[in-house]
Amino acid sequence: MCSCEAKTHQCLLELPKCEHHLHIEGSLSPSLLFRLAAVNNISLPKSEDDSSFASAEALESRYERFTSLNDFLHYYFIGMSVLITPSDFESLAYEYFTRAHKDGVHHAEIFFDPQAHTSRGISYATVVSGLVAAQARAEKEFGLTSKLILCFLRHLSAEDAEVTYQEATSLGHFSNGTVAGIGLDSSEVGFPPEIFRETYESAAAAGIRRTAHAGEEGDSTYISRALDICKTERIDHGIRLVDDENLLKKVAKDKTLVTMCPLSNVRLRCVTKVGELPIRKFLDEGVRFSINSDDPAYFGGYIQDNYCAVQESFVLSLKDWKFIAEGSIEGSWCDAERKKVLLEKVEAWALSWNGTL
Ligand code: ADE
Ligand code: ZN
């Protein structure tokens, strides 16, 4: 858990959180990675090629030196190659939910990358069955509700994305709620969202929720194109929104949720420090956003670490945090009844911490 000594740590720990931007494959810790590689007989790159895989410690320290999104993705795709069975996916997700629960997460909407698994012979059904089993355990044991968001890898073709979409559709996973929505991730620059326009149009017509990574490394037009062409309801990262005042005002007016990932943005060098992020600007302009961990095993922090990093840089008030927490709930894809319960928890939190921040 976040071990910062800030006076505000406990207050933020108790703040009821929703997490909307978490790649489940990005919660694979080096220790679990090495354990599963041994169990599943997966060979990792040999030291002569890349000494980062010499040990879990060596890998941890390589993760502190990412130079870009693509540099990170190289390790991310190697890492997930150790995930083979439904039980591997269940362990991975259950480990994440356990940690998220300790960090005060009550509702999580998690991304998964089916193409990164089907392309190496692991079936879509294997991935989803493991994740669903972990979701059921987390709800039963912790009262933590969750949703799955199926992401398309934007460095692969639109046809490949469509095949994945059709597989989930044919299994009834969108209509029966197994998968709540679609997203778009992986290398951003050079792969604008409109490449996937047709799949997004089908999803919109079928009432399937839609989000996309945009404005992480790409400029603000990636955000406007995701919204205007792919009709996304959310924007993941969205930090380049600051470069287009009109777009920012529209996002605020439409209450589009922006899922921010502060520690990720620093690790991937989108900004040099958390204080550079447009968090004060978003609050002043009424942009609805949540704070998330993205790939916590790779970026040195889970959700509470991200909350504390934001507080350290911006010294937010209780009113600011209440706005963030309420926006996170309103922008979630859970039903109205669940939102009401979560909003009441935030109200109780604000009363008990009144005068603290
Ligand atoms: N996949 C996992 N993490 C990602 C990120 N931060 N951006 C794009 N794709 C990702
Ligand atoms: Zn992400």
Automatic annotation (TrEMBL):
UniProt keyword terms in alphabetical order: Cytoplasm, Hydrolase, Metal-binding, Nucleotide metabolism, Nucleus, Zinc
Binding positions (substrate): 295
Record InterPro entries: A/AMP_deam_AS, A_deaminase_dom, ADE, Ado/ade_deaminase, Metal_Hydrolase
Assigned GO CC terms: cytosol; nucleus
Subcellular location(s) of the protein: Cytoplasm; Nucleus
Co-factor note (free text): Binds 1 zinc ion per subunit.
Similarity comment text for this entry: Belongs to the metallo-dependent hydrolases superfamily. Adenosine and AMP deaminases family. Adenine deaminase type 2 subfamily.
Matches recorded under PANTHER family: ADENINE DEAMINASE
Protein name: Adenine deaminase
